[in-house]
Amino acid sequence: MSRIALTGLVVAAHTPFAPDGSLALEVVERQAAHYLENGLTTVFVAGSTGESHSLSIEERRQLAARWLDVARGTPLRVVVHVGSNCLTDARALAAHAQRAGAMAIAALAPSYFKPRTAQSLVDCCADVAAGAPDLPFYFYDIPALTGVSLPMAEFLARGAERIPTLCGIKWTNADLCAYQACLNAPGGFDMPWGNDEYLLAALAVGARGAVGSSYAFAAPVYQRLLRSFASGDLAAARVEQYRSVRLIQLLAGYGYMGAAKAVMSMLGVNVGPARLPNEALTPERSARLRTELERLGFFEWIA
After folding, report:
1. Sign of dihedral through CA atoms 301, 265, 93, 118?
2. Using an 8 Å Cβ cutoff, are 9 and 226 in contact?
3. For residues 290 and 163, what is the distance between their CA atoms, to the nearest angstrom?
4. pLDDT digits over 188-220, tens only?
5. Which residue of the set 35, 138, 140, 198 is catalytic?
6. What is the mean pLDDT of residues 168-187?
7. Could you say which of 35, 170, 198, 215 is catalytic?
8. Of 94, 119, 285, 291, which is most buried by a Cβ count within 10 Å?
């Protein structure tokens, strides 16, 4: 297994649903075209944005297979999230991702029965990663959703000895101090950043790549942010970051998942409703959201 790096913007893909809540896999091709039109060439499938914990195992297999079929022959690279509360299911999903041609896999921690130590988390991840021994493996650290908050520098040190395919951490955690410790940990691990509204801060301490949900509908904002930071124009980068903050705060006020999927539909990529327990927006609330987005200047930002 060769090491990889998730650099630049990696888009976290929504899972498309039909109005009745079933998978709408025919929409994946339109999603892929939209991402490529916006300069996005790496896709993170079936993560939090993909509502993975609301999908059956068979649905997750179908979703991954569809993405990998659509990406074949295009510049798109696909990372498949395989984490589950059941490690047997996660390992099976990892094996499927490898057979189907994924570039890498990721897995978050079990979150009902939680690992209590960094070593226990390493053991869980080693079990999952063994299902795809030829693919780079990322631990997906998202303590706000899993309730698992363990020392990630210790995880990397122990994981380096136990998980041959360990490539790094998908970091969706606001702790910049811990993030810097991992960036500077022995082994040169890849540490893609996962908090869209803090991207500029992460770049300042050394982030090279980021995985985010809002890149699906606001990629131009973040691309300008990256260019401004690279050229040393911090004032311009701050403008773009604050646009991100205002956008995400607005969507969160409506229920982020349902609102984000509504925005995708506004852009001509109908990924359908959110699946319960996330809530979809009613037509009335969607119309009100559009009015607020227009007032914010969102459609000019992404033009």
Report:
1. positive
2. yes
3. 46
4. 999 999 999 999 999 999 999 999 999 999 999
5. 140
6. 96
7. 170
8. 94
CB 32 within 8 A of CB 76: yes
β-strand partners of 296: none
pLDDT digits (tens, 9 = 90+) for 14-54: 999 999 999 999 999 999 999 999 999 999 999 999 999 99
Nearest to 160 by CA among 129, 117, 202: 129
Peptide bond before 277: cis, by omega within 30 degrees of 0?
yes
Whether residue 200 contacts residue 238, with contact meaning beta carbons closer than 8 Å, is answered with yes
| Contact status, residue 63 vs residue 25, Cβ threshold 8 Å | yes
| Residue 68 CA to its chain's centroid (Å) | 16
Q: Tell me how far apart the terminal alpha carbons of the chain are, to the nearest angstrom.
A: 40
- In angstroms, the CA 238 to CA 15 distance is 31
**CB of 262 within 8 A of CB of 281?**
yes
Structure tokens at 302: 């992404």
- Looking at the chain, the whole-number percentage of residues with pLDDT higher than 70 is 99
The pair of three-digit structure tokens given for residue 33, joined into one six-digit string: 């075209």
Residue 46's contacts (CB-CB under 8 Å, 6 or more residues apart) are 15, 52, 55, 60, 63, 64, 80, 81, 82
Annotated active-site residue 114? The verdict is: no
User: What's the one-letter identity of residue 285?
Assistant: R
In 255-280, which positions are buried (b, 16+ CB within 10 angstroms) versus exposed (e)? bbbbbbbbbbebeebbbbbbbeeeeb
4/55 Cα distance (integer angstroms): 28
* Mean pLDDT for the chain overall: 97
Contact 98, 131 (CB under 8 A): yes
Which DSSP letter does residue 273 get? P
* 3 pLDDT more than 90: no
Percent of the chain topping pLDDT 90: 99
Residue 282, Cβ neighbours under 10 Å: how many?
A: 11
Active site residue 140: yes
Do residues 255 and 243 touch, judged by C-beta distance below 8 A? no
